[in-house]
Amino acid sequence: MSKKRSRLIAEGSDWTLEAIAQYDTEIGRIAKNYGLDTYRHQLEIITAEQMMDAYAAIGMPVYYHHWSFGKHFLETENRYKRGHMGLAYEIVINSDPCIAYLMEENTLTMQALVIAHAAYGHNSFFKGNHLFKQWTSADAIIDYLVFARNYIAECEERYGLENVEQLIDACHALSNLGVDRYKRSPPLSLEKEKNRQREREAYLQAQVNDLWRTLPRHDAAVEAAEERRFPEEPEENLLYFIEKNAPLLEPWQREVVRIIRKIGQYFYPQRQTQVMNEGWACFWHYTLLNTLYDEGRVNDGFMFEFLQSHTNVVYQPPYSSRWYSGINPYALGFAMWRDIRRICETPTDEDREWFPDIAGSNWRETFDFAMRNFKDESFIAQYLSPRLMREFRLFAVLDDDSKAKLQVDAIHNEQGYRALRMNLAEQYNLGSSDPNLQVWNVDLRGDRSLTLRHFVHQRRPLSAQSNVALEHMAYLWGFTVRLEQQSADGEIVLLGERKTEKRKPG
Amino acid sequence: MTVRIVDRRQDSRNKSSINRGRFIRRFKGQIRKAVSDAIAKRGIRDLENGEKIGIPGKDISEPQFHHGKGGVRESVHPGNDRFQSGDEMDRPPPNAPGQGGKASPDGEGLDDFVFTLTRDEFLDIFFDELALPNLVKRQLARIDEYKRVRAGYTQSGVPTNINLVRTMHGAAGRRVAVGGPYATRLRGLQAELEQALDEAVPDETEIDRLKREIACLKARREAVPFIDPFDLRYSNRIRIPQPSTQAVMFCLMDVSGSMDEAKKQMAKRFFMLLYLFLNRSYEHIEVVFIRHHTTAEEVDEDDFFHSRETGGTIVSSALKLMRQVIGERYASSAWNIYGAQASDGDNWNDDSPHCRELLADSILPLVQYFAYIEITEGEPQNLWDEYEKLATTHAGLFALQRIRAASDIYPVFRELFRKRLA
User: Fold this and answer.
1) Which residues contact B284 (CB under 8 A, 6 or more apart)?
2) Tens of pLDDT, residues A321-352
3) Chain A: residue whose CA lies nearest to B118
4) pLDDT tens digits, residue range B195-210?
5) Per the CB < 8 Å rule, is B71 touching A401?
6) Inter-chain contact A50–B9, Cβ cutoff 8 Å?
């Protein structure tokens, strides 16, 4: 007994810096044994108020200023103060070194949980997953955010708060359609960014001027000899198109558009891998802390407290519960990773049939492969097992607005597994949840109007808000903007038009 | 290698304050309206708190291109307890529990966005409306200054506050109390020893024993510490609010039929501002509400602002009642008396000179300040003319102002503040 006791890392529920460091060392040692590959990390202790600050700025330690973040802060503060929500236990930043926040109010157990979850779980995901590797530059993001904040602050001073605010409003309105879904963006670097910024300014302006040199010349001999189409290919990244082609934007405005586009792009992988990423982190905090317990380094009290928090986080209420608000990504992700390990270690005949290549394989290798090469959509399509569908008692409902009733079209049975899995994967496909909107045409020779085309998917219309968003688009473009809709049968209707004429005086 | 842990708790706290300020700046119109509504609901004395403000959620939404309702949607839900494939069911009503995944993402029909303005932000908007200059705003919004005064002694504190005299006093007492019994016994033993020495045949062993015992007792007496942590006494200081005098504020208002709700609200702002001002200068304030038409009565705040009467107007009735209340309850030697009168200027013609006399003879000598505001669009009437005479004869004690909008109220206070700031 006394021997076991002496092995405990720390006791009591109050944390000290030493105890946190000891926990980190121990958790790190176990993580290393499991072969988790992580960035270096840094733990930062903050207060609840600072946590709310961080919330408002999407978790980033530095961010440009905008009223919408103030709104989010007030919202969070209000709900927190009324006790409607607890604060998240952790925020972790995908940077190198990876920064994990520990909240002052947490007990020592919670701190250990957060360390295992964020500093080892999320951290290794950030470092390993192909989307994060490709799309985000962990070593440069903080520097870039500093650059962005200073640049925008400078613009506010120079061109006035209102102007900058209106520009950022407009960019935010388009930010969900301001990402490259397929192309890879070049890595960020503060040095380069600063040096290139002026160059780019001059160059872009020259490009744009060139584009608009085709002013109508009445005496031109061959008018419309070749109807040049612009853009030659439709462009789905609206912010990118604006940045490169909007005729009347000032250089600084282009730079701000670019900043918001870049930051949006940085967050895009997080939206694409929520289930995988949270599930991965939950799996690892669960595994790491259980291993600590097996080694006798933490006591029963620690485990009870930890398990209570853990089960709260990974609880999935059923559809009929009043707490139900969709599938809990933590629950689904955690269950899937656990299930994959089970398939590797103790496969059943069913698993062998469904997953011939991973059943009975080394689970750590399978994990690494899955973590590195998938996003939510493909991860679910690949690894959701019939057994898990039965455990969650999943069922798919078809809501077709042309029919009077909803229809259950697949449940967790032999006939339904594949359809269920496909449907669930589709739910996590950002490509179909965000509307498919493209810059279709610009009338170069005429009134310079721009046409956006919405390609209807599954007959889903655009929401009423889109009209306001269209106004923002028109503000950025500077000339008339039209919104068309093309339905599946090829029929095209005009949804809206915003006329603007914002030529420079003189 | 141990991990790097950074303690950020002492870092700047209000990182979001800029964003918060921007938010308030952007929606000033809506917030101001909400504050106006809030003022109508608030009591005059209730200016020290922040305010919970709701502004329409639609105004502050951040639009984006999203899908709206409709079309074909397929969704997966957990916890199947009754369905077979092919089952059909009715669409759940919107906002029903369960099936919540289908809630529309377009965010229409949002509730009000509710948040709490801090006291400073609230006052800022309140002042903004009244067009108060910054100096005055600062004067009003400042937190009370406190004076530190001595308040006896405590057993804990910081070393700089140790009170030596008290400490030594206590130590001496303790030494006497603890060492006293030893001293008594010592004296006894000394006497015995002398007696033993005086004997013709000294008993060496007895003398030895006594000497040993004496030495032992002396050592014990010496061991009583000269000073002990228990003896330490610290000078105690407490903070008390600096202005510690009392004031009474009389709110006089005409409630005859011609004073409509808007005029009363204007008057209310005036009274609030006066209250706020007094609150800065006096620790304890009482407010007396007197309303009048042809007769005056003392009422509570709610009745004061919200009940309506009809009939003519005799202003002097209110002044008489005020003088009577002062005489009964607020002796001017113990109270600082302030008067604030709001009306639309209507009065019986032959009552106005009477009012002036009343004020000049029996009220102004008693009060610190008396302010009159006339809330009207029309030409000044005879009450105004009479009061103007007072303003010249009692400058600095009496002020009057005609107001159309809330921002006109300030000049009345300018004089008041000039007096304070001088």
Assistant:
1) B245, B246, B247
2) 888 888 999 999 999 999 999 999 999 999 99
3) A74
4) 887 877 777 788 888 8
5) yes
6) yes
Question: Among positive and negative, which fits the CA dihedral A317, A318, A319, A321?
Answer: negative
Regions in chain A scoring below 70 on pLDDT: 1-6, 58, 83-89, 183-192, 204-228, 501-506
Rounded to 5 degrees, what are φ and ψ at A446?
Answer: -100, -120
In angstroms, the separation between the Cα of residue B22 and the nearest Cα of chain A is 5
> Within a 10 A sphere around the Cβ of A152, how many other Cβ atoms?
22
3-state secondary structure (DSSP) of residue A297: coil
Tell me if residue B292 falls in helix, strand or coil.
strand
Interface test with B, best of A236, A324, A377, A471 (most B CBs within 10 A): A324
Domain extent listing, chain A: 17-129+273-304, 314-431, 433-501
Tell me, what amino acid is at B22? Answer: R
* Total residues belonging to chain A: 506
Pairing of strands B369-375, B336-343: parallel
Q: Is B93 on the interface with A (CB under 8 A)?
A: no
Q: Which of A63, A156, A320 to mutate to test the interface with B (most CBs of B within 10 A)?
A: A320
Interchain CB distance below 8 Å, A320 and B98:
yes
As a whole number of angstroms, the distance between CA B345 and CA B248 comes to 25
**Whose CA is closest to A418, among A388, A381, A392?**
A381
Edge-first strand order for the sheet with A492-498 is A436-442, A450-455, A481-486, A492-498
Distance CA A365, CA A380 (A): 18
- Answer whether B18 sits within 8 Å of A437, measured CB to CB: no
Do A135 and A182 form a contact (C-beta atoms < 8 A)? Answer: no
d(CA A141, CA A87): 25
